[in-house]
Input
Amino acid sequence: MKMVDEFRDPERIVALSKAVHAAVGDRRFRFMEICGGHTHAIYRFGLPEMLPEGIELIHGPGCPVCVLPVGKVDEALTLTEDPDVILTAFGDVMRVPGSKASPLEAKAQGKDVRMVYSPLDALKLAIENPAKQVVFFAIGFETTAPSTALTILRAAQLGVRNFSVFCNHVTIGPPIRSILETADLDLDGFIGPGHVSAIVGTKAYDFVVEEYSKPVVVSGFEPVDLMESILMLVELVKSGKPAVENQYVRAVKREGNAAALAAMADVFEERESFEWRGLGFISESALRIRAKYAEFDAEARFSMTTIRSPEPAGAICGEVLVGAKRPEECPLMGTQCTPETPVGALMVSSEGACSAYYTYVHRALGVMGG
Output
């Protein structure tokens, strides 16, 4: 892998900017970056200021914390009513608001909720606390699903009976399809997610070309990566020959990661339907634990029931997630909703569009009196 400095070289970025301006001319293009990591990079490196007016970047539903509906947080927190349960979650999940509290607030109220850096940390906690039931609140796309699958396999191998997973892993294809079928969202192409694609491979987006005639360019996360990807998309649209192309060749292959995909296939199966924030219920868009590993399925172990909770009043999280509105259009931006006091999940996550806008644009406008 090349040194990161090569992908932040100012001369290369300026050259690519000029190339994009020349390629765009007087035409207009609307591209959606699916991944929240791309959204942060776009804002962080000030790429919109280097692009022609004819390029509009739309933020998509690729933030794993953001797409989790409020009800799923509420479901997880019902487990903490049992004093024998330790609920574990990633750091950004800890701050996602439920209808009554976030996991972090539940912890402050005396519930046994603990932050972990990986599902293996949760498994270790279970081994160290045999009298407790340890539940890992699993979220994320195919990027994080393999680590959850491997942890369940490890728990089975070790015979750890007090460990289970509340599985909320989702898959990348169905929400893209849902967006493409949204009549009033006219897109010319997609900047494909880098981390997810390292697992699923570029072949996962073939349907976008074959069924919807839209190009996809899988991109890395540095400014050179993104500028190159935008230029590639412009050229694909202009050619009239949509395709799936891979800019992120140093990390992504067409077939993906065979070992990771095999672990997922062993442990998980598709759910019939799953609720997404902003997108509603999407069929076959999420994963559940297979029956052969049911002893590690928290939903089965604790007879969990589905909770549907309303979105926070005044927030437009769902509309931002599907590209219908931009973060700056939310009436709560920077006032009621900030990273310190988040109302919605998009302000919590390090991949959330609202967090990115607040960090790199909103505060700067405030400093300048804008």
In short: The chain has a mean pLDDT of 93. The domain at 1-313 is CATH 3.40.50.11740 (Rossmann fold). The first strand starts at residue 29 and ends at 35.
